[in-house]
Specification:
Number of strands: 0
Helix content: over 70%
Radius of gyration: 22 Å
Distance between the termini: 68 Å
């Protein structure tokens, strides 16, 4: 393989790696954003007097998750 072909191959590999990294980062960021949004919704429901059982049924989340969020928010325990 000549030098020009090696450079082209290297650039293609770099671009593929960059694209793969972007996609992984995007997915991680998207999932993090969803989880933060769900947490905010749970906090809002707790602040408005919804029971843990109601939240579990509405959002299809675990009792443990709702209890952890409840404990992490001052004044809602």
């Amino acid at each position: 393989m000549d030098e020009k072909a090696v450079i082209i191959e290297a650039r293609l590999r770099i671009e593929e790696a960059r694209e793969e990294g972007f996609n992984e980062g995007f997915e991680d960021g998207f999932n993090e954003g969803i989880e933060q949004g769900v947490r905010q919704v749970i906090v809002g429901l707790l602040e408005n007097g919804f029971s843990d059982e109601d939240i579990v049924n509405i959002l299809k989340r675990s009792h443990e998750e709702v209890q952890l969020i409840r404990k992490s928010v001052i004044g809602l325990d």
